[in-house]
Design brief:
mainly beta; about 55% strand; Jelly Rolls; about 120 residues
Length: about 120
């Protein structure tokens, strides 16, 4: 029997138009064959660095990241390269992101080091 990760997100957006998204709930049950996960906070500097993942996680799966900085942004990507498009996820101050990864995860801070909180679940 597979383990399940439940993710819920609420969208509450009410622009001055008829197609408002008010109190819409999105929910997803993510099947995981593994049982391991890691939660931590890593200081991300101005040089790209890998997110620390424990050896017990055989295959990286679903990830949640939150930028704890109150001013600067952090970029996250799946490749250790310096190209501008290598880190497609940008978390401004206090923002978060949820996604499924398929390999090593790298991050880079903007103007000053940022603390990046993460949950990484085994696939």
């Amino acid at each position: 029997m597979a383990n399940e990760l439940r993710v819920r997100a609420r969208i509450d957006y009410n622009p001055a138009t008829e197609d408002s998204l008010s109190t819409e709930w999105l929910e997803k049950f993510i099947s995981m064959t593994g049982t391991e996960f890691i939660h931590g906070v890593q200081s991300i500097g101005l040089t790209e660095e890998a997110i620390t993942v424990i050896a017990d996680i055989a295959t990286v799966g679903f990830c949640i990241f939150r930028n704890l900085d109150s001013t600067n942004f952090v970029e996250i990507g799946l490749a250790d390269v310096v190209a501008d498009d290598a880190r497609p996820i940008k978390l401004k101050a206090k923002e978060f992101a949820l996604f499924r990864a398929n390999g090593a995860i790298y991050a880079l801070a903007d103007t000053a080091a940022c603390r990046l909180e993460y949950w990484i679940f085994e696939d």
